[in-house]
Design goal:
Structural class: alpha/beta
CATH class: Alpha Beta
Radius of gyration: 17 Å
CATH topology: Rossmann fold
Helix content: 25-40%
Shape: globular
Number of strands: 6
Protein name: S-adenosyl-L-methionine-dependent methyltransferase
Largest sheet: 4 strands, parallel
GO molecular function, one term: S-adenosylmethionine-dependent methyltransferase activity
Keywords: Methyltransferase, S-adenosyl-L-methionine, Transferase
Number of helices: 8
GO biological process, one term: methylation
Order of helices and strands: EEHHEHEHEHEHHH
Length: about 190
């Protein structure tokens, strides 16, 4: 692990291996495994957006990804969403000051009407990150709308097979700005859809 001039951590893929798998670690009651600081900083450093206005983290947990985003993009508005009321405490403690523009919403990140609940219109977020829980949520009809809006409704043989990982990705895609730098992936082809 090497430190950059600005104090941000960078790591090679081999250096991150030790932070990606830890035997014997269990999830919390919501199926969350927490992202280490090293992995968070490495992931955020690789995002090719220089000055985002809005950064969203769904299922923020301890806020490791948004905390790394706050270190990189000081002027960005940070929005975190989690069902846990305690989730934003780390982010607020680490980046306490008048320049921190952070809003936390205690809400279900997989609510089809999430954009209305958090005051962000679909297609207005510059950077969206998440470390989704590794669970298969009980199917709700609005999950189909989330997958359809994101262009992922054909990604699975049965939509009811969608895990939280795909649903969180789809929710992020709905909220991301379509013409922003970094919006380059052909999601249907990436997901194996002809």
């Amino acid at each position: 692990m090497a430190l950059r001039k600005a104090g941000e951590m960078t790591a090679s893929p081999s250096g991150l291996r030790q932070h990606l798998t830890r035997s014997g670690q269990h999830s919390d009651p919501w199926g969350r495994y927490y992202t280490s600081d090293e992995v968070s900083h490495s992931l955020i450093e690789r995002i090719e957006v220089s000055k985002p206005k809005v950064v969203l983290e769904l299922g923020s947990g301890s806020g490791a990804l948004c905390s790394a985003a706050a270190s990189r993009w000081h002027d960005a508005r940070l929005v975190t969403v989690d069902v846990d009321r305690q989730a934003p405490k780390r982010l607020d403690a680490e980046h306490n000051g008048p320049s921190l523009k952070h809003s936390h919403f205690v809400h279900d990140a997989l609510d089809e009407a999430l954009s209305d609940k958090i005051g962000l219109r679909l297609g207005t977020v510059d950077v969206a990150v998440c470390n989704p829980p590794y669970i298969r949520p009980r199917w709700r009809s609005d999950f189909g709308k989330i997958l359809e809006d994101a262009g992922l409704s054909g990604a699975l043989a049965s939509l009811r097979d969608a895990g939280a990982d795909l649903l969180f990705l789809a929710q992020n895609l709905r909220l991301l700005r379509r013409n922003a730098k970094g919006w380059r992936v052909d999601w249907p082809r990436c997901a194996g859809i002809p």
